[in-house]
Design a protein that fits this description.
Helix content: under 10%
Structural class: mainly beta
Shape: elongated
Largest sheet: 22 strands, mixed
Distance between the termini: 69 Å
Radius of gyration: 23 Å
Strand content: over 45%
Length: about 425
Amino acid sequence: MGHAMQFSTTIFLILGMATIGLGKIGLSDDNGLTTINVVNVLDFGAIGDGKADDTQAFLNAWKEACGKGGFIVYFIIEKEKIFLLKPIRFDGPCQSPIHIQVFGTIIAPNSIEEWGDQSNGSWMVFFNINGLKIDGNGIIDGQGSIWWQQLSKTHLVDPLDGSGNQGPDAMSFGLCENITLDHLNFLNPPRRHITIFNCNGANITNIQLTAPESSLNTDGIGISFTTNVQIHHCNIQTGDDCIAIGSNSFQINISNIACGPGHGISIGSLGNNGETAHVEEIEVRDCTLTGTQNGVRIKTWQGGKGFARKILFAGITLNAVRNPIIIDQFYCPHAMCSNKTESSVEVSDVAFITVKGTSTSETAIILNCSETLACTNISLKDINITSANSKYVFSQCTNAHGSSENSVPPVDCLQK
């Protein structure tokens, strides 16, 4: 068939294969010859003993790898090493797609002072990168307990709700396209585990996110200003929303999530401080919630603008969940909100289908919509929620319009 095809590939080795150094390896495959450029972070001074600061070594190695042209870049962290990283930012664009394979452990600083001016930012930031993939079954440990212990201090209290943790997020993605996260273990973030902001295209599968139930604002995955996200087959145990879909999020598909403890799977909160929020085409399917504060929820602040619409929750299993189905347009986590009735985020075209299980509260279904702008086209079908405590359960509605079919408890309060 003539000449063999040849590709150039850069491998970014965080450790392991130290004897290879910086060079090239030829690997044959069915297509011919692949040339691999190897970038080993050990050659840039990384130690990996869990004590030495490896931040600058990572930055130097990243600069080298990001500038390498070729077919793909591999960034490998072997399991024998523990890398201590202070707040770090990986900037693109890069010459090739980056594939980070985390087999070992990455840990954050264990004192707040070491975070410097990033105490309200993020630990690891990936910015303006196309085609980034991170996988490997490794551990990413934010060592967040040092932050949770300080929540009574004013600089760690969220000025918007008076109770939240304003410490740094663990891993953040901004202005990225086509992100893939697969088979990773996140532990104890100072605040949220993963945030995705202003991105297009993300595929998150088979990840474990873990933090204590008592850790404030440790959301599992937070999404905003982002389009086209797939989240599937993840196990999330945390102190806030397992998944929170924020303003200006579109085409988000979620399935096969095990959530709990935590605050459930939420759209919002939307409309804080009068913001205009747009959320559309959200699907949450085949998820199980266990011991969570809420089940599937839409939450908006009074006085907001915009819309949340075309939202589907289907095939949801509930195990002792406090508020299984809830639309709350009077969201106020600190009971000090002013009554703003001049505007509201418009909630419409929301379907709850085949939601079954048990509730620890008597009010199993809450559709508490704005007095200014009603919720419309709310549909409930094949709902079977019973009490986890051998009590009666019932529904509660305010200005909610739509239909219900085959629902336990009945939703007689839903207006036509």
